[in-house]
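Our example pasted here:


***
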Amino acid sequence: MSAETGYLCPDNDQLEVPMRAYRIDRLNRTHKAITLDFTLLQPIDDTAENAIFTERWGDGGWLHLPATPWVKNPCTTYNTLMKAAGLKEPLQCPIPAGNFTWTRRPVVDHFVYNTPFWSGRFKIMYVMRRIQTKQKILCTITITHTEEKLD
């Protein structure tokens, strides 16, 4: 799986945490760089949950795939994804309130999940929300390209 680009969700201005930046750029032949900038007003702890919504590019445009369920402990989930992408320094859990800025932080360009997946272009929306109020905390969209690898 290789990330092509990253951008903010259309409703970013209405979120609990409007992000100021989320980008994915090519750093070199083997790595991409993530840039993000946001301020948490409250910690991300067991009062939050997250989900990943996936769409696949097809003949008719973006086609919705079955959604993953909402999962508690978003910090743990996020750290698992980032470790798969080669990030060496995981986030502290729970994520404390405060400013978070990554400027061109390197991640491996191609990383492999040990689960079967279709080849093609995908839009992956990562959403975090408060469990009690269902208020979205933050939201990012990443466009990826996946190639099937058979061993």
Summary: The chain has one domain: 2-146. The two ends are 16 Å apart (CA to CA).
